[in-house]
Amino acid sequence: MAMREIRVVPDPVLRTPCDTVTTIDDRVRGLVADLVDTVDDEGRAGLAANQIGVSLRAFSWNIEGDIGYVLNPRIVELGEEQQDGGEGCLSVPGLWYSTVRANYARVEGINLDGEPITVEGTGIMARCLQHECDHLDGTVYLDRLQKETRRAAMRELRARL
């Protein structure tokens, strides 16, 4: 389909929880194709539908050459072990901050045939699953930062706008 333009903060679509996909039609199939095409670019790990201006619960990933998607994802399990590593976001360009996430995550959703699917992983895949589900809930990774770090990030973001 097409590589789509990425919405950036402070676009309100990024702060609005996304709607559940209720009907899998040509519009949703086109959305998934666009998500997959848009995430298939150097340096991109994940992409939520609202990052391309569509308020539906869907995201794609591109982790170590493995590209996929999920509709109506919800996190069903997070591991107790934490990871603290650098995280960035296409919708917050140029900012990169250490962010604490669970080191394991499991997401359940559906595919384009309406069949249940499970996506899980550790390390960067776990980070991606959490990051993209946050997007679909209207949260950006900056909201997850420690208080002082978040203040610094917001100052930097305002200076860039």
Automatic annotation (TrEMBL):
Removes the formyl group from the N-terminal Met of newly synthesized proteins. Requires at least a dipeptide for an efficient rate of reaction. N-terminal L-methionine is a prerequisite for activity but the enzyme has broad specificity at other positions. It comes from Promicromonospora soli. It is an enzyme of class 3 (hydrolase). GO terms for biological process: translation. Fe cation binds at C89, H131, H135. This is Peptide deformylase. Pfam families: Pep_deformylase. The keyword Cell membrane does not apply. Its EC number is 3.5.1.88. Keywords: Hydrolase, Iron, Metal-binding, Protein biosynthesis. HAMAP family: Pep_deformylase. The active site is at E132. Belongs to the polypeptide deformylase family.
